[in-house]
Amino acid sequence: MIHLINITLRFGERVLFKNISWSIPKGSRVGLVGSNGAGKTTLLRILSGEMESDSGEVSLAKDQSIGYLPQDLIEIPDVPVLDFLRERTGLADIERRLASCTRNLTEAVPGSEEGNRLLTLHDELMKQYEMRDGFAFEPRARKILKGLGFTDEDAFSTCGNFSGGWKMRLHLASLLLISPDILLLDEPTNHLDTESMEWLEGWLSVFPGTIIAVSHDRRFLDTMCTSVAELSLGSLSLYQGNFSAYVEERERRIDDLRKAQKQQKEEIAHIEEFIERFRYKASKASSVQSRIKRLEKIELVEIEEETKRVHFRFPPCTRSGLESIVLKDVEKRYGDKIVFHDASLSIQRGEKIALVGVNGAGKSTLSRILGGTEQPSSGSVRFGHNVKLAFFSQESSQNLDYSRTVWDTISSRNAAWSEREKRSLLGAFLFGGDDIYKPVSVLSGGEKSRLALLKLLLEEANVLILDEPTNHLDMQTKDLFQRALLEYDGTLVIVSHDRFFLDNLVDKVIEITSGSLIVYPGNYSWFIEKRRERLASEASLLSFGNANASSEKSSQDGIRNLKRMEAEKRNALYRRKKRVLDTMEPLEARIEHLERDQAQRDAQLCDPSFLADSVKVSAILIERNEAAREIADLLAQWEELAEEVDRIERTG
Is the overall model pTM greater than 0.90, yes or no? Predict the structure, then answer.
């Protein structure tokens, strides 16, 4: 268990945390949320030991290990990937000490005091190596690397060959290999594509330790967390359930706070009226003083200003032709590398389309071609009648005038908007107070990106091409932006890794895969379902094709004899496969039973009446952790057997 006790932190005049206390039970899965600047990253750094608070303390057991994934890019040495992971897990150090110990043993006199000491040391080092699963290091490392999107060849590459985003994946891979007692994750999905996100969610679902994660990915939080901690106005509020449950409960709490705030304001007004009315009457002096003291002691009910109250609607746009953008036989290559080829596509007026694919598939390249900022290597791109295009990417901030202020950048856009509306919109995009008078040159990268996006949104475009527009938005601003896009009457093409954002927005998905474009009519959930069906169908056809090829080869060497031999081989493989499947069956039954029990425990942990009994909560958390560990062990056994079945089927 982790305990935060009266944590207070100030930055100059601003109080970021005020006497925060928080007990985090072992095995918790917490989503840490709050508006930008609320202190989420700072609190993770305090929990990790990277930063100290002004007062208060963090208490945890001495034997508990912590793994921290920061949001900022990390320096990684330019060494082979597997060597980096071996160093990070501590295995390389143990291997060096074992090698030294073994050398010294060969020189020591058998039975001597030094020889016995070295034998004891060797045994201790071997135990440490086994505890860290050293003998299974390479297959485990390869499995995690593959899940995070690396190829088999990448394992033999050097870390310096990878971009910042891929280096963050390497750091995450090292944490998953270490498997610490407590995982602190700051925006872990920022540099992951959809497939890697889903793999990570699966890995975390069986992780037996404690997880505290900061993320703007709502679907990730819904899948991962069983409780939510919200930072607001220097305080911490706790909610049971996943992120969706938190949103509902938060709405109820805010409604209650509004009512309490209204009552308090009425009470204060009544007291102030009494004080003003009788301030100068000697007969009421004691009553007036009593009420003044009462006023001084009142703790004001505060409610964090909510960006969702701001309603943003895109300026009306002129109507384009039926076809907004048409691609015909488009190919894009960089040197010998073909990104996509023979790409033909017609984007119709009013469509809302998501471009998806693994990192490096060509989403940003295609968005630049659609946005008119990059030309294809061959083929044609035609823009429809009366199309007025606006294109946003992470590089758009470079086009801002750095000599102007935030307010100057926005105030000159779109005369239809009043000054008050523009100020409200700036606030919604996290430019509040005096921040609007800051020169663009002093803004952070995220602030510049938000300003460039807001500037673009005020243009009267009827086609929007947006490449990762939500990267620097908090959840409330993202919700505001999503609602505005839903009401937008123009055409939208968007690249985003935010699955919840896409699912509730788009009506068509275009996947870029293996240099081709595959169109899925429907929302993001529909795409995921149909994509699984397509991949399963392709795998089946490939298996069928391989079987046919094998059959043709057999016929060439003597059909009758080979048929008999293949029948024997099939029977042997069938018996071998059946033995493995028979072993898997009880494992599956046990896993299913344990997962049903876990679901019941999770339901109990969401019950406020159950949570009131700390003894029961402690007991069920212990049970949950033990079950999670057993599930992880059983799954590891099951996966090994499943791989054996795959090998048997490939052999067949």
Answer: no
